[in-house]
Amino acid sequence: MERIIETIDLTKVFGSIVAVDNLNLVVREKETFGFLGPNGAGKTTTIKMLTGFLKPTSGEVKVLGYDMFKNGKEAKEHIGLVPDQYGFYNELTAVEHLNYYAALYGIPKTERRERINEMIDLVELTERKESKVKEYSHGMRQRLVIAQALINKPKLLLLDEPTVGLDPRGSYMTRKLIKKLAVQGLTIFVSSHLLFEVEDMCTRVGIINKGRLIRVDSIKRLSEELREKVGIYALIECVELNNEIVDNVRNLKGVRDISVDKNTLKIDIESSGIIPEISTAIMQSGGKIKKVNEHIPNLEEIFLKLTEG
Ligand SMILES: Nc1ncnc2c1ncn2[C@@H]1O[C@H](COP(=O)(O)OP(=O)(O)OP(=O)(O)O)[C@@H](O)[C@H]1O
Ligand SMILES: [Mg+2]
Predict the structure, then answer these.
(1) Are 92 and 241 in the same domain?
(2) In the structure, how many helices (H) and strands (E) does the chain have?
(3) From the CA of 21, which ligand is nearest?
């Protein structure tokens, strides 16, 4: 499949900070690629280089085969960008705003109205299209910026943390829109610091930390492997605990580790299937179980685990 984005040893240094460190990345046609990393990881710096706003210290960026810093004009024609920060002319309506950008892109007047309405419907702002942007909610503004980024029919859409600051509903609507665009065949590169969002939207994910790409994989394989690494815990609260109970549980097959916090056993287990066996062992050792809980780490916790230190 066609390579829409390719970076070769892409590096950006600010003084003594290596913001992006020898990044080698390929994003293929029609995939939704999640670029996941904590604050300061280098996401925005990477996106600025991918879109030609920032010149790399070294390395290359190719978009649709064009070298961004040699044939930037050709490359940029096919890119739509939703930046992490943006401003509006607050007195304009959504239609006026999009008309301004459509004109800027040189879309002929005869085609503009249809294109603008199409975009407004797509981002579900139809009812409010004649309202001034200053009357819009944060979520509505975010969707308007997405419409703006799409006005020129790009082949690649880049979004820099598009759900930051949105409430759960706004975040949901933005993700729903991104998924809809993916179904329509757009290639999407989206950064985030939230694993569950990437899991929801993306087919593949690259994890970046301190400027380095630490992992690229399908979201499915990645989450499976991480779960395996971080483990699943059984939390069993007993009325009274003693060393014999703890030792007996520790010796069971499938128990990887055990720790005690007051009257609760935190047991690192290979799979939830052995919880009944653990319960039996506790009772046979004279323990009384008050509560059994299973703790499966969510991707957020797994991610913190992976990037800590
Ligand atoms: N113009 C600049 N001058 C100096 N340092 C910069 C500049 N831009 C970014 N940096 C540094 O580069 C590193 C990466 O920053 P970047 O904004 O790319 O991270 P990010 O992953 O987008 O973080 P966030 O999640 O907070 O948006 C940080 O250490 C940041 O301080
Ligand atoms: Mg950023």
Answers:
(1) no
(2) 11, 14
(3) 1
Nearest CA to ligand 1 atom 28: 40
Residue 274, domain CATH = 3.30.70.100
The DSSP H or E segment spanning 27 is strand 17-28
User: Which of 163-167, 242-246, 250-254, 303-307 is least confident?
Assistant: 303-307
Q: Tens digit of pLDDT for each residue in 233-244?
A: 889 999 989 999
Q: Which residues are CB-neighbours of 224 under 8 A, at least 6 positions away? A: none
For position 208, which CATH number holds?
3.40.50.300
| Whole-number pLDDT of residue 197 | 85
Q: Which of 72, 71, 101, 74 is nearest to 86 (CA)?
A: 101
What's the whole-model pTM score?
A: 0.81
Q: Kindly give, in sequence order, each residue whose CB lies less than 8 Å from that of residue 238, ignoring residues fewer than 6 positions away.
A: 245, 263, 264, 265, 282, 287, 288, 289, 290
Are 110 and 184 contained in the same domain? Answer: yes
- For the chain, state the CA radius of gyration: 25
pLDDT for 54 equals 97
Pair (202, 286) in one structural domain:
no
Question: Atom 24 (ligand 1): residue with closest C-alpha?
Answer: 39
**Residue 236 belongs to domain spanning:** 231-307
Q: What is the pLDDT of residues 3-30, one digit of tens each?
A: 999 999 999 999 999 999 999 999 999 9
* Claim to verify: residue 96 and residue 187 sit in the same structural domain: yes
Count of domains forming the chain? 2
Same domain, residue pair 48 and 174: yes
* Residue 120 burial (C-beta neighbours within 10 Å; 0-12, 13-18, 19+): buried
193 lines ligand 1 (CB under 6 A): yes
Structure tokens at 68: 């961004």
Listed residues 223, 245, 260: the one ending a domain: 223
For 131, half-sphere exposure in the C-beta direction (CA atoms, 13 angstrom radius) is 13
Considering only CA atoms, which residue is closest to atom 2 of ligand 1? 14
